[in-house]
Design brief:
It is a single chain. The protein is an all-alpha fold. It has one domain. Helix 2 packs antiparallel against helix 3. The radius of gyration is 20 Å and the shape is elongated. The N and C termini lie far apart (about 65 Å).
């Protein structure tokens, strides 16, 4: 069994934000097209989860870069270009995650207040 090194840890978790963001985008498009509330909630949840895991992925990537120390089998500059693209992607995903978390919270809060209003109306 391999030991858990920084490059190995980065390889284990680096696909989560990509997949979660892709799913979030696809279900957002579905929510726009079909107008289903559950699609909106699902997309906001996926984007929020992507934002929660994107920083650990970026952190393990930086640590993996330091651990590898520019190996001969990786062309010079490729890791730096990857790191620059990852930084931009991290900022975009974090912004989308914050907006989605707020939207998710508002959507759930609005649903609760609508249910309370309905219950109050029925009791009177």
């Amino acid at each position: 069994m391999p030991t858990l090194t920084w490059p190995y840890a980065h390889l284990l978790i680096n696909h989560f934000p990509v997949v979660l963001t892709t799913l979030g985008l696809a279900t957002t498009v579905g929510g726009v097209l079909f107008g289903r509330r559950w699609l909106w909630l699902y997309s906001m949840g996926m984007l929020t989860l992507a934002a929660l895991i994107v920083y650990p992925v970026h952190f393990t990537g930086d640590q993996a870069d330091h651990a590898l120390r520019d190996p001969w089998y990786i062309k010079r500059g490729v890791i730096d270009a990857h790191d620059n693209a990852a930084g931009i992607a991290m900022i975009i995903i974090l912004i989308a995650g914050v907006v989605s978390a707020y939207g998710w919270w508002r959507a759930l809060k609005r649903r609760d207040s609508a249910q309370r209003l309905c219950a109050r109306t029925l009791m009177n």
